[in-house]
Each structure stands twice: as structure tokens, then as C-alpha cells.
Batch of 2 targets.
Target 1
Amino acid sequence: MAFSERVTRLKSSLIREILAAAQRPEVMSFAGGLPAEAMLPALDWAGMPTSMGQYGTSEGEPALRELLAAEARALGIACQASQVLVLSGSQQALDLATKLYIDKGTEVIVEGPTYLAALQTFQLFGAECLSVPLGADGPHIDALRARLEQHAPAFVYLIPTFQNPSGVRYSEAARARVAALLDEFGVTLIEDEPYRELTYDGGMAAPIAGRLRKASWVYTGTVSKTLLPGLRVGYLIASPDLFAHLLRLKQAADLHTNRVGQWQAMQWLGTEKYRQHLGELRGFYRERRDAMQQALEQHLGDLADWHVPQGGLFFWLTLKQPIDTRTLVAAAMAQDVAFMPGEPFFADPDANPGCLRLNFSHVAPHRLQEGVLRLAHVIRQAQAAQAAA
Amino acid sequence: MAFSERVTRLKSSLIREILAAAQRPEVMSFAGGLPAEAMLPALDWAGMPTSMGQYGTSEGEPALRELLAAEARALGIACQASQVLVLSGSQQALDLATKLYIDKGTEVIVEGPTYLAALQTFQLFGAECLSVPLGADGPHIDALRARLEQHAPAFVYLIPTFQNPSGVRYSEAARARVAALLDEFGVTLIEDEPYRELTYDGGMAAPIAGRLRKASWVYTGTVSKTLLPGLRVGYLIASPDLFAHLLRLKQAADLHTNRVGQWQAMQWLGTEKYRQHLGELRGFYRERRDAMQQALEQHLGDLADWHVPQGGLFFWLTLKQPIDTRTLVAAAMAQDVAFMPGEPFFADPDANPGCLRLNFSHVAPHRLQEGVLRLAHVIRQAQAAQAAA
């Protein structure tokens, strides 16, 4: 049995094990990133033409591409529908970008922390992921400049708005500085924006892709966080020099994205119905965010530091006494509490102990207090044991 | 701009150009492999639970996996639902198998001719594709044995039932001999079966995967040819030693397959409604196959040889006077006729001139005669020009 060399990097995933275990109904799960079931809109399929069952184009449905391009232009990204590629979820943008850029040993720049499924995909193909630490308003600019001066990365992968896992939203100033650096060094930007619309306290900052004057870019989004993940409809928009390659890679991967999901997405994007739905979603999640904040203050205030996330789906906690949070998973699960340890969100997990990601969108409010209380006990016990050792 | 090394193998595709040009309504197209629009069933979405909009499992919907496993067992493949991975179309099986097995220079065995999108995917990752010639009843067994003796291929990729492009269905004897060889050499089988149910003259032969005693295997299918391609629902079933790897690769590619399409597929598979639909489909395509056979006999009988396909969607013609059929594309298109040249279906196109693939499922019957007549003229003119040169 001779597998490819890359399969040696296809590790078994702690995350998958946690998510699988978290599905037991008795578990209070802060682990996943699932939308609340209550906020999944009912679907109307009346009027979908039978022709949506036929093979479609690899690029995606023309009307959907137009809607997505118009939305991006409204965010300041100068683009045409011809630059839009509809995807089977925005995870696919990572697969295609990886195929386009990464050979074994290729260097790429990521945030520290960053989206772990991106890390896994880049590393599967042999990328060397170089981290730039993330602060409350964006990446450390000096560190980013140093990385760009000392390396020749294939791309910089950023999640500037309500990042998973940290919840960080880059400031206007940080966005401008990052764009200027990418232009200066001529390095491609992969900008991942699944959480842009999940904003709870107002304010808004335009994408970095729209600020670039020279560098190539891929901007990617999805309807999974705002409409329905089960449709598997995401998209990328790329600078014209990249588009044709990404299109061919999409075709080789799965020919095209499912048309029934695309048709359904078209019934929502840009409509008054969708605006209303987004408003309700923000209100619903804001309440859950606030309830989580209250529970955390009550039970974890002396154990951890955090910023209140202004959007997205996660709290990111930093323990005052760092401890490898992967060692807490089993004890928490024994108490029917699931959370996501922070270490796997870093390119170098062992060098970054002591963070936790807690999802606030999915857990039922009446179980929230109890879950956070139990988690606090687990942390206290582990830290006491560590101190005693 | 530094792309990956594999992108140098991402060629512009003659096939894509032909298919794009063939979409002009005035074109009589024998080029694609599209189901007939008239045979796309109307869909009923009533009863789909809202929860189908939520994230699903990477493996696929449990009930669908059970249905697909039961169908495979009925074909003689001993398997459980736990070995079924639902895919975003069966093209994705090629992407995942490629990631699992192929590094630059990895040898794989394919039929000559074979499915060209498989060739493209394997070659994109750097595979050396070794051909085994295909006869009327299956591959040349001595040639396959010689390949296995002289090389150590990562896998053998076969389309044993109504192959695209050749229409060949392996005999029972050929299947048994191929299975014995794969077991003898311990080489993995990738068995691609999108056309199994499109059978017009009776007879049936069980998959090769079910005949293996030792070798690893991946069996892949789809609902695209029998139900609706636009759903993008395919699947693979794998021997247990391969399944976990393929599952993780699927997760890295697009998390999971769209659930609305999976739910729709579940409404059909194994039902009386589906059996009826398949019966109507076979009748419809049988008529179109027979009409094409008649037109070919009338206009191309002196120019080419072929076997009448007993299933699938294609006639495969071999010109009596070989000529590179890629050189006929422009002249045919000028006559508003599209066809698929045969050369790109071979790992070594230039060594295999003189075949054409003609689809019979999509062209409207009243345009069939005229299209074939025009194609015959184009071939005659090119051969006359060649003889005069």
C-alpha cells in the first residue's frame, strides 16, 4: 500500500473527536460553530425550474454571480460577475487556493491564531505556515513586515472580520496598513469572510481586497453563517489573473456547485426578506452573546481574560495561568461539557498554550450557566493539580 | 507570482472550448454527456425537514448511506453503510483518490481510452498514466499483466460498464480475470460506475470490486445520470483500510455534501417511483441510441467502424482512414456540428488518432440526421484533403 507523501500529514483530528462526542444530547457544547437550529429559515421551493436539475456551469449560476458581485462592489471591491466562482462551501476556496499555490515546503503567512481547517488544508499539501500574532485590532504590523522581508510567502491568509477563533475585527487603520504591505511586497491576499454579516454592535470596515492596488487577491464568503450551511453554497471572487486557474481547479474537483442550493440562495440574497432575516439573526445571537458574557464574568472572571466579541460566533479566552487546554478536554467531557482547545488554532500549537474557544450561538440558554460553571471547575481543578505537582 | 508546480500541468482544455461553443442553440451537439432535459423528473420538496439546512456530517446522511450500501450489496459488493462516503458528484471521488495516492511521478494504470476528466485530474497531480488497450469485452489482459509486472502502480482506474467514451461493457470473464490480477499484485482498484443503470439490451455484470479477495478498492457512483446532475450527489464506497483517509480528505475539501440534494436523492433511491423512472429513461435513451445507429449506418458506414453501445450515452467511432480528429473540430463547428475528438481520451493522444465520441442522449431527434450528415461531409473533406496533400 503506497499512499501519497501528503497522506503522512493527514493526522487524526482532536477536533473531529470533540465534535463527535459533543453530539450526545446531554452535552452542553461550546465546541462547534453551528448556527442555532431555531434560526434556520423555512425554505420555499415553489418556482424552481426543472432545468436546475441539469448540469450547470463550473462558474456557477449567472444570476447568483451577479448578485454576489453586486454585494462585493457595495463593500468596495471593484469586481465583475465574471470574477465570481460559486463554490461547494467556502472551505472549497481553501482547497482550490492550496492547489493553486502550495507545493511541499511552500511558505504562507497566517494569523496566530487562525482558522484551524485552513491550517490543516495548507499543511496537508506541505505548506510551512508562518504566523503573525493577532492583537485586538488586527495583526502586529511590524511582525507582518518582518515576515514579508525575510520570506517569500505564496500568499497571506487573513480573516479580518470577527475571526474564527479570536473574534477579532481589524480596525480601518490595520486594514489599510495590511493592504499597503501586500502591495509593497506583491504578495497575494486570501481574505476569508464568513462572519461579516454577523455584527452585533454596529460599525463596519470594508474588506482588504478592495484596498489593494497591485497585489493579487481571492475574497471568499458563504451563505452558511447567514442562511443555511446545509446548502453548501459559498463563493470566491478573484483578481482576473487568478480566476481562470481557480475555475479549472474547481472543475477538476467537482465540476460545479449544486444548482438547487444556488437557486435557493438566489431567492434570498439582496431581498428585503433576507435583510429581515439578518436583522433577526443579529438580535438572536446578540442576546446569546450577552448571556455568555454574563456567565463568563460570573464564573471565569478570575481565571481568564477576553474581549467581548462584536460579531461572529465565538469567545476567545486566554487563561491567566496558562495550561495546555487540550489536557482539559477529557475532564470537561466527563462533566458533559465540550469546548475547543485553543492550541490547534496555531501553526505551532505547543508554543501557544492556554486559550479556549467558546461558541455562543448553539447552546440553549437554560444550559449556558451550568455549562460555564462546570468548565470553570474543570479549569480550577487542573490548575490546582498543576500547582501541586 | 509563484504558483504551485502542479499548475504548470493545468492546461487550457479543448473540451471546455467545444462544450462552450456547443451551447449556441443552432448547434447540433453530439459533444457533451448531458441527460435529456425531457427526462429530468419534477421534484417534490414537501416534507423536507428544516434541519436539512444545518451542517451535516462529512460522511453523508445516514439514511442515504444505508440505501447506497444496500444497493451495492445487491450488486455483490460486501459492504456496510459505514464504508459509504457521500460526495459532491462522483468527480470528487477522482479528486480524493488523487490526493490519497498521487505524488509527482506516481504511476497509475488507466484504460485506453479512458474518461478524460480522470486523466486530467490524475495528471494535474503529476501522475504517470500507463494505458492498457480496451477491447470490445474489456481490457487486454496480457497487456494489463505486463503493466503490473513491469510497474508498481498506485492504483488501476477502470470504468467497466458502458465506459465513457468507448461504451464498452466488460464481460463476466474479463471482470473475473481483472479481479484475479489485482489480487495477485495487490494493487488498489478505483472502479467508476456512473452508467451502470443506463442499460438498453438487458444483461448485467456485477462490479469488479465485489470480486476482490485481497486488494483494496474504491467503488464510485452517482445519481447524475439517472436522476439529476444538478443535485451534485455522488458517492464512493471503499474498503475499510481506505475509508478513514478518504473521509478526512473529503472534510478538507468541502466539509460535506449538500444536504438538500442528499435528501432529494433519498426520496428516490430504492423506491417504485425510481424503478419506473429508470424504466422510462432506458426506453427513451434506447430510442435515441437506435436512431443514432440508423443515422450513422446511413451516413458514416463507409467511413468508420463502431460497436452499437448496449448502454451509457455514447457511440465511439474509429475512422477507417485515421486522421487526427482534433483537426476536424473547427470545420464541424463551422457547420454547427459539435462532437468530441477521441485523442484527449488517451494518456498519449498523439499516438491514438482517428476516434470520435458521439453522444446520443441530448440531441433532438429531428436534428440528428442532419447533424450526422454534416459530420460525414466534414470527415470526407478532411480525408480528401489529406489524400491530395
Target 2
Amino acid sequence: MKLLEDRIVKDGTVLSGDILKVDTFLNHQVDPQLMNLIGKEFKKLFDKNNITRILTVESSGIAPAVLTGLQMNVPVVFARKHKSVTMSDNAFVSDVYSYTKKVTNHISIDKRFINSDDNVLIIDDFLANGQAVHGLVDIIHQAKANVSGIGIVIEKSFQPGRKQLEKDGFNVKSLARIASLDNNKVTFVE
Amino acid sequence: MKLLEDRIVKDGTVLSGDILKVDTFLNHQVDPQLMNLIGKEFKKLFDKNNITRILTVESSGIAPAVLTGLQMNVPVVFARKHKSVTMSDNAFVSDVYSYTKKVTNHISIDKRFINSDDNVLIIDDFLANGQAVHGLVDIIHQAKANVSGIGIVIEKSFQPGRKQLEKDGFNVKSLARIASLDNNKVTFVE
């Protein structure tokens, strides 16, 4: 997605440790018009997959997931990292290790919001090591539902997340694929 | 907003302790079409206020805030409760006590995302005691920006949040106003 790549080059900042900071439009400040175009792009990519539900993880996945749900006209469920007071114990739970934050979170989704006949599209803002996506896949499998696709806004292609997901047979589509962040410069996959 | 009230009656559940559970469409599973209608409603209510930016708090505020930002064509910033690895120390911080979770969170917003010439619309999913909104108001005042309005999806009018905000001179608009949750029944303000 050319528009997204241009925005990453214009507004993104590369920090040490292969961290790409895109908090001006994606994960602290959010550009709603860009999110809407991202939603339209994911609809194009996954429209034939008969998606019945979108899953993501709070918080940064919510904006792109909800705009994709708006375009595809399906409900969106965001997994919680922190137990909500209204959350029942009737939940699917999986462990997600965050390499950037160096903590393990339990992510959970109420069992009422994923059924065995669901074709689920996973949406997330970043794919690096793939831990969050693996947690969502685990929950979808616990529910005996189908993982119909994985849509990622920004993929760090030099980290092992995509390779493992492809090896596991999943259909992964990323709107921007980053080959390298070396020398504080963003280089995209050709 | 009649459609929202009907949805609360149809899908909401009242739990003990005056808790209204609306996780089927607002704060765990999200109905994107409803969020879009909520965005249109907030645009109608605040269109004359020359809004330049929308502020909310992660996670449940993000969906209604981003759809309102899409309708009003302004950027949305969500305050973080948990420090992000890419977040600089250059942030406005305020304390928010959660009565439901019984914890105090620091919420923070990077100083780059709120300026003294901003007319800010605060959007949140719930207003009860008003702690989250007070935290956002505090941050907006630290930035010497203007609080142009406060838009709430569901207000528990029997709790003190709105009264205090009105006493402080703020323009509060809530799409559903709940007078009581007594006897596990939702009664709206006439």
C-alpha cells in the first residue's frame, strides 16, 4: 500500500533496537482517514474469504480492526490483556510474550464472541515475532473456529513472525513490509 | 439516541454493583456500524465547536473516538494507561482512579499530540464518576488547550460525573443517559 509506505517514510522514526515509531498516525495518535483506507484495502484482500468475525488485541489493533469491520460489515472482537471487571470467567485465554515490553500477558476473549462456525480474520498493527498473532490463533483453535486470514498493517519482514505463520499454512497479507531498519532508514521489501 | 437505547435494552446486562455490561457491542465485541452512527451523532452535536482534535483513553474509548474522528475529519489521540516502549518521557501525565477496578492508573499523552491552540473534543464510552474525563481535562489544561466538548456514549446519570463536569462549566453530551439500574432494569432519563 503505497500511501502507507509514504506515510511511514514521512512520519515514522527509527529508534535503536529495530523499533519503528509510528505514533503520529497509528498507535497513539490515530489518523482516522488512513485507518478507513486501510480497512478498504483489507476488505479487498480478504473479501472472498467469507469472513464472519474480526479478532485483534487491545489497544493498537482496535482502530484498524474496527475500520476493517466497518468496510466488511462484520463484528470486531478485541482480546483483553487486562481482565475487565465485567469479564466473566467463561473465556478463552492464551499467553503472549512481548519482546519489546519484556512481559508475558494473558490475552482473553469471552467464549460468547467466537463460535466453531466462525471464519475469523485476524488484524493487528504490527507483525514482528508474531507472538500476539500466535495467541489469537491459539484462541481461535480453542474455539474450533477457522483462521481465514491474517491482515497486518506494518510487517517487520526481517523478524521471524511471517515465516513461521506461512510455515503453519496461514494466509498473511501485510500492507507495508519492512526489509530493514538499518542505519535508521526504512527499507521496504521489493 | 434511540437506536443506542434500544440496543442497550436488547443486549445489555445489569450486574450487581450498578454495573452495566455492554460487551456485545461496545467494549469487548464492537459493532462497527453502530460506532459509525455514534460518530455521525457526535459530529452533529459538536460540529459547530471547531474541533481540531479528539482525545480518549485506551481501550474502550478508541472505537467510538476513531469513528467520530472519521466523521469530523480530525486526528484522534488515545491516552495510554500503560507506558509504551516507544513513548518518550515528554508526556503530559494525570492520575485516574478507577472505582470499578479499584486501581489508580497514570494516563499519559505525548506532548507532540496536543497544542495550546487545540479545541479538543473528549470522547469516552462511559461516564460514571467522571475520573477518566477529569484526567483528560487535566492533561488538556496542562497543554493550555481548550476543552470544547465532552461526548459520552453511555452516561450513568445517577452517579456524580456529569453533575461535577457541568458545575465546572463543560458542555457534556451523552447519547444514552441512564437514570437507574435498580432491580436489574435499565431506566433512561426522561
